[in-house]
UniProtKB/TrEMBL annotation:
Keywords attached to this entry: Amino-acid transport, ATP-binding, Cell membrane, Membrane, Nucleotide-binding, Transport
InterPro entries according to UniProt: AAA+_ATPase (IPR003593), ABC_ATPase_HisP-typ (IPR030679), ABC_transporter-like_ATP-bd (IPR003439), ABC_transporter-like_CS (IPR017871), Ectoine_EhuA (IPR014343), MetN_ABC_transporter-like (IPR050086), P-loop_NTPase (IPR027417)
One cellular-component annotation, GO: plasma membrane
Residue ranges of every copy of the ABC transporter domain listed in the record: 21-266
Topology of this chain in the membrane: Peripheral membrane protein
Protein name: Ectoine/hydroxyectoine ABC transporter ATP-binding protein EhuA
A GO term for molecular function: ATP hydrolysis activity
Domain of life the protein comes from: Bacteria
NCBIfam families linked: ectoine_ehuA (TIGR03005)
Lineage: Bacteria, Bacillati, Actinomycetota, Actinomycetes, Kitasatosporales
Length: 270
């Protein structure tokens, strides 16, 4: 069954091509360490953008800023019409209020390296919990949505199990279904296969390829799986030391990179 059966195009979702995410001169420091340095980039609705680059170059920090788990020190972050932070004329940073933050969090789904499922809840309830308690969906409707998503990720037979009864790859597929159950505009994927045994990676990547191919969800993805990045990306951003040093279509970045650092990085990971 195709993914769009379960993810009907949402009337509230911005039309393809509309700018959905904007970073304007975003700086993030931890102590004296500048992790992101006046970073600019934009993502249009419906696009699949992959962030690549050496460990420590600031990729995960970007996802955490978008999830409002961190606040930048300078600059503007905008998601749709909502400002997460913006600077006034005197350079003072104005963080978004609680209401705004809740709104943005509802529109962004995140899947982490370590699955982070609720261990005390069965698979079905892991997926229905937020739609019921955050979106106010009725239990029946939330369960119907969850069953559809479990079908999409190939886990219908496991809906009555606890997370610990599943393999890592299965748990990660539940985490993907759980993120999608909120019908977010944006799916953030943070090295979602790096904690998995090698034989479980392909199943998770296949599910994500299917979602990228058959839905209009915007994806921002940090990954070391270069062939996956090549398959799903509209744009690849190559990071080094908190800056985008090169960006473009995957065919260009992976076969004919401009920057020496990109060549070195790809030489090491491919
Ligand atoms: P990447 O995802 O590219 O590997 P990260 O965004 O995770 O990079 O980290 C960038 C840098 O910021 C790293 O040097 C990391 O140690 C540092 N860092 C990340 N989070 C914190 C934190 N909460 N406190 C201090 N340093 C951090």
């Amino acid at each position: 069954m195709s993914a769009d059966t379960h993810l009907p195009k949402d009337a509230a979702r911005p039309a393809g091509g509309t700018e959905l995410i904007r970073f304007d001169r975003v700086t993030k420091r931890f102590g004296s360490h500048t992790v992101l340095d006046a970073l600019d980039f934009t993502v249009s609705a419906g696009k699949h953008v992959t962030l690549i680059g050496p460990s420590g170059s600031g990729k995960t920090t970007i996802l955490r800023l978008l999830m409002t788990l961190l606040t930048p020190d300078e600059g503007t972050i905008k998601v749709g019409d909502a400002f997460l932070t913006h600077e006034e004329k005197d350079g003072r940073l104005i963080p978004a209020g609680e209401k705004h933050i809740r709104e943005v969090r509802k529109n962004i789904g995140m899947v982490f390296q370590q699955f982070n499922l609720f261990p005390n809840m069965k698979v079905l309830r892991n997926i229905t919990e937020a739609p019921v308690h955050v979106l106010g969906l009725g239990k029946d409707e939330a369960e119907e949505r969850a069953r559809g998503l479990l079908d999409l990720v190939g886990l219908t037979a496991h809906l009555d199990k606890y997370p610990t009864q599943l393999s890592g790859g299965q748990q990660q597929r539940v985490a993907i279904a759980r993120a999608l159950a909120m019908r977010p505009q944006v799916l953030l994927l943070d090295e979602v296969t790096s904690a998995l045994d090698p034989e479980l990676v392909a199943g998770v990547l296949d599910v994500l390829r299917d979602i990228a191919r058959t839905t209009d969800i915007t994806m921002l993805c940090v990954t070391h799986e270069m062939s996956f990045a090549r398959d799903i990306s509209d744009d690849v951003l190559m990071f080094d030391a908190g800056r985008v040093i090169e960006s473009g279509a995957p065919e260009k970045i992976f076969t004919d990179p401009e920057h020496e650092r990109t060549r070195e990085f790809l030489g090491a990971v491919l």
